[in-house]
């Protein structure tokens, strides 16, 4: 009499499975994310990579040959930097980002460069026709005959084509459009996305093919579908930036083959995405001269120092509760710095509105920009401009002390290269830096010492 369940409820955020509907997911604690879909059959479940073959034998670590996993360069230096040096054969990479930000354009450029090396590539699109891909390709440039195109959403057909063609790199655009006929739910659902990713993972690991997957994002900015999708892939890359602006930032969120601290900076042009070699100069372009509330600070993104302009506007509030707004940094961090300025420097900002913006659209979580934010807020409050050739960085504590930061020498060297003449930094870092020609290094112990300089 007992039969297997034909349907089950899955969480769209984390993939948690339940036999009944729940208002709150027990796995990720999100509300109203449970949807009803077809349950896996008796013979379902995750298939092994070597399904149908004899069990693999264990080997010694010394017997593993790294030459089999040599990286393939994409000939896009910014992308190779984020990937850790290039694509690894047999890897599964997920690229996410807002609609229209340039995910498909970047991957088509990767196909163009790698096909020019004589490698066979397969571009599978489930959203665009061959004519639409051709129109975008004409803007990018000439393509080699090594690039093959396929417009298909049936995962069985995609799997057969990959096994037949055996390309070095395959691109899936996008994972939310793929479906298996055995699963009755719609494309893009939890079951379809999970099963499609599992099949692609088997193809990548079993055949040694590097597969790039395009993933849609939700309104919160995360990849749509179950959270297990990000756990299954080897690398997760996110495109950041305003789609209406010219710059794009590619950030690694997960990388089994390299660091997750590196970023790549691109500029969207008519012929596609162009690399930005000097990100600091790009971020500081258009900086006003002689304006109060404007300070240049430095943040480290992996091994790359990036100079950025911090803008602050502090003005008297006409309401009982002053407003605080931060763009590009944590709002709670801004409230903390405002409290430190009022307590330690006696700056009466409790009745003032404060707006802080990191020009260029960067999002920085590093506390090294604290000193720049504090100096910009004080400059706007006193309406006194800071010298345009001055840069400041350092972490501020609740007692008003300026704490040391990492890789201070690289930050000072980047500032000197761009023509800055004065660098205000923590005193603990100042004694460790060799004096650079053309730039004066000033160490400060408290935020009051830094504000007194301006």
Overall description:
There is one protein chain. Helix content is 26%, strand content 25%. By secondary structure, it is α/β, with parallel strands linked by helices. It has helices spanning 77-83, 103-115, 130-140, 155-165, 190-207, 228-232, 279-284, 331-345, 370-382, 408-417, 427-430, 447-452; strands at residues 7-11, 17-18, 34-38, 92-96, 121-125, 147-151, 169-173, 210-215, 235-240, 247-255, 263-269, 272-275, 294-301, 304-316, 324-327, 352-358, 390-392, 395-396, 402-403, 422-426, 440-444. The longest helix has 18 residues, at 190-207. The chain is globular and about 70 Å long. A hairpin with a 7-residue loop joins strand 10 and strand 11 (263-269). The protein is built from twelve helices and 21 strands. It has a nine-stranded mixed sheet with strand order 6-5-7-8-4-9-10-11-12, with helices on both faces. It has three domains: 7-37; 70-277, Rossmann fold (3-Layer(aba) Sandwich); 282-452, 2-Layer Sandwich (Ribosomal Protein S5, domain 2), CATH 3.30.230.10. Mean pLDDT is 87; it is low at 42-52.
Instruction: Tell me the CATH superfamily of the largest domain.
Output: P-loop containing nucleotide triphosphate hydrolases
**Whole-number count of domains:** 3
Overall CATH architecture of the largest domain: 3-Layer(aba) Sandwich
Name the structural class: alpha/beta
Question: How many β strands by DSSP?
Answer: 21
User: In whole angstroms, how far apart are the ends?
Assistant: 83 Å
Low-pLDDT stretches are 42-52
CATH top level class name of the largest domain: Alpha Beta
Total helix count?
12
| Rg (C-alpha, Å) | 26 Å
The major sheet is characterized as:
9 strands, mixed
CATH topology of the largest domain: Rossmann fold
Tell me, briefly, the overall form.
globular
Helix content: 25-40%
Strands across the major sheet, in which order? 6-5-7-8-4-9-10-11-12
Quote the beta fraction: 15-25%
Q: Provide mean pLDDT, rounded.
A: 87
